Amino acid sequence: MGSVVLNHVYKSFGAVNVIKDVSLNIEDGEFCVLVGPSGCGKSTLLRIIAGLEETTGGSIDIAGADVTDLEPKERDIAMVFQSYALYPQMTVRENMGFALHLARRPKEEIRSKVDDVARMLGLEALLDRLPKELSGGQRQRVAMGRAIVRNPQVFLFDEPLSNLDAKLRTQVRAEIRDLHARLKTTSIYVTHDQIEAMTMGQKIVVLRDGCVEQVGTPLELYDTPANAFVAGFIGSPAINQLSCTIAEKDGAYHALMNDGSLLPLPQGLAVSEGQPIIYAIRPEHVRIVSAETEHSLSAEVTSVENTGSDMMVFCRTAGGQLTAAFKDRVDIETGDQLSLQPFIDRVHVFDAGTGARIGLK
Question: How do the domains of the chain map onto residue ranges?
Answer without folding.
Answer: 4-233, 240-351
